[in-house]
Amino acid sequence: MAIQVSGITKQFGSFRALDAVDLEVRSGELLALLGPSGSGKTTLLRIMAGLEFADSGSLLLNGEEALSLTPRERQVGFVFQHYALFRHMTVFENVAFGMKVRPRGQRPTSSEIKRRVMELLELVQLAHFADRYPAQLSGGQRQRVALARALAIEPKVLLLDEPFGALDAKVRKELRRWLRKLHEDIHITSVFVTHDQEEALELADRVVVMSQGRIEQVGSPAEVYDRPASAFVYEFLGQVNRFDCVVADGVARTANGALSIPADGTVRGPAIAYVRPHDLGLSPSAGGPGRVSGIHVVGPDARIEIDLAGLPLEAEMDRERLSALGLRLGDQCTVHIDRARVFPQP
Amino acid sequence: MVAATTSDAVLPNSGGTVLSVLRKPSVLPGFGLTLGFTLTYLSLIVLLPLAALALKAAGLGWSGFWDAVLTPRVLAAFKVSFGLSLAAAAINAVFGFIVAWVLVRYRFPGDRIVDALVDLPFALPTAVAGIALSALYAPNGWIGSLLMEWFGLRVAFTPLGIAIALTFIGLPFVVRTVQPILQDLPPEEEEAAAALGATRWQSFRRVVFPALLPALLTGFALAFARGVGEYGSVIFIAGNIPGLSEILPLLIVIKLEQYDYAGAAAVGVLMLMASFALLLALNLLQAWMRSRHAR
């Protein structure tokens, strides 16, 4: 089912959480709402679910106006960051809840409910835990129960609010893969909120980058990463070196003249240049302008801090390349930039 | 768990005292000191007076005790005391719950004042409450005269009056036990229920209420225990007609005034046993409910 958001605005007191947001969620896709806290992503998700009310705008669920509908009428599955399982109910009762509260005429028989619940618990690999209480499960297991519970009402849309936010790094990664696979199996239109760019880029079909109640860019993970529409998107989607510079004749120069970067033709005057650490090349040179001021090895990667005539830079390469270069702490080097993005000064 | 305790007990330097057998390894210091203090304190403040009471009653002997206790007057008072305390606690459970709900869930002008009002039955000398209530509900009082006129209902100097007094003094217990739990109830659980298609009533009945039930039961037990022991407010409104509106505490006072100390102690022991049995049952029920979703 497709979702059409148009002109949705939401104000909390003097804070504008959403500012005339337009967005289309395509049927069957897995969409990520990505942004820092306070960017309005969760508010937008909650408005889609009917847990929050928009001040103005319209929301079409499958072509039908849905803003006036209750959550109950919208038939969306919602997964919370902190699971929100019913703590006095077993796993089985939690998953069965959505079916048991249906009006008598639409309620499945109890044997049908049992069959459905066990099927879903099978799907989330928790069939052995049907009689446990939520407090007896780990975080990852609880979130899978929450997912099974949301799927039990056969929702047309699945909305997930920072679904992995409360989990530790390893479980988060596992669950992420698992959710991706689940989505490929059942192809339900899904929207998830995250502030973790890696999560959004890895998991989603399309990524919506939000900032201050507005949408900055919508696109596939590769699109938003390779062709960021704004300085904000560039900065948010990964590690960056950021320079204030002035562009003249297609070249961006920093104030102290230590660095000049090729800029594309559209920008002129004061600007901000961004270089990703892995786009920064180093070569040892005794009289070079840069000095290695720090080396941090993280697993297979190495992060090298450079002091370029008072300008701090960060480069990233794999460990083997670093040892091939033979750079050591305190060595002089030259810096060349393989790729950069220049945005006009806001 | 079992294995851990056994292996701890066979540790060579674990001392072998009773204390070290009871004790599980813990980083919290002061187990021995605080347990010792707790036992001493409870013994002095609670157990010793109760033991003295039992000892006094024991002077009657087994059959003497039952003779003192199984008189029609004592049994009638027993029914009045426990029956009306249970009834008042039940009334408080319902209306105290609603008061707590309103205070937590809604903001309205004067909500802080209402919140403070709830504690007044704690602070007011109970005799004052009793006199005020009997003045109000007496056949010539403000409310009593109206009830008399419209329904022919007599409140003061009947068991109904006792129930009203006990409800008055028991209210804060239910409100104050339910309120914090309701306050801490995460809104997400109700939102989850709504998203899953539950109506407001279904989400209350199946999600909110079960979470509050243990606290409500605590409030009920406290209000009940308070009601059983209540004296000051009841004697003014009860009329104290033997066999009809006489409560056990009053009966004890009457026996004391007749220098029947052993008889008074016997009634005291009877109250103690019944209260203890009921409170223990309530506590076990609660423990069972909590164990179902223990963290």
Draw up the topology in text.
The complex is a heterodimer of chains A (346) and B (295).
Chain A: E1 3-12, E2 15-25, E3 30-34, H1 41-49, E4 56-61, E5 64-65, H2 71-74, E6 76-79, H3 91-100, H4 110-123, H5 139-151, E7 157-161, H6 169-186, E8 189-194, H7 197-203, E9 206-211, E10 214-219, H8 221-226, H9 231-236, E11 241-248, E12 251-254, E13 260-262, E14 269-275, E15 280-284, E16 290-298, E17 301-308, E18 311-318, H10 319-325, E19 332-337, E20 341-344
Parallel strand pairs in A: 3-8, 3-9, 6-7, 7-8
Antiparallel strand pairs in A: 1-2, 1-4, 4-5, 9-10, 11-12, 11-14, 12-13, 14-20, 15-19, 16-17, 16-19, 17-18
Helix pairs in contact in A: 3-4, 3-5, 4-5
Chain B: H1 2-9, H2 18-22, H3 31-58, H4 62-69, H5 72-105, H6 111-118, H7 120-123, H8 126-137, H9 142-151, H10 159-184, H11 187-195, H12 200-229, H13 232-238, H14 248-257, H15 261-292
Helix pairs in contact in B: 3-15, 4-15, 5-10, 5-12, 8-10, 8-13, 10-12, 10-13, 11-12, 12-15, 14-15
Dominant shape of chain B: globular
Assembly form of the protein:
heterodimer
Integer-rounded radius of gyration of chain A: 25 Å
Question: Structural class of chain B, please?
Answer: mainly alpha
Order of helices and strands of chain B: HHHHHHHHHHHHHHH
Q: Helical content of chain A, roughly?
A: 25-40%
SS-derived structural category of chain A: alpha+beta
Q: Which bin fits the share of residues in helices of chain B? A: over 70%
Q: Strand fraction band of chain B?
A: under 5%
**Which series of helices and strands of chain A comes N to C?**
EEEHEEHEHHHEHEHEEHHEEEEEEEEHEE
**Gross morphology of chain A:** elongated
- Can you count the beta strands of chain B? 0
Cross-sheet strand order for the largest sheet of chain A:
6-7-8-3-9-10
Radius of gyration over C-alpha positions of chain B, nearest whole angstrom? 24 Å
Number of helices of chain A: 10
| Biggest β-sheet description of chain B | none
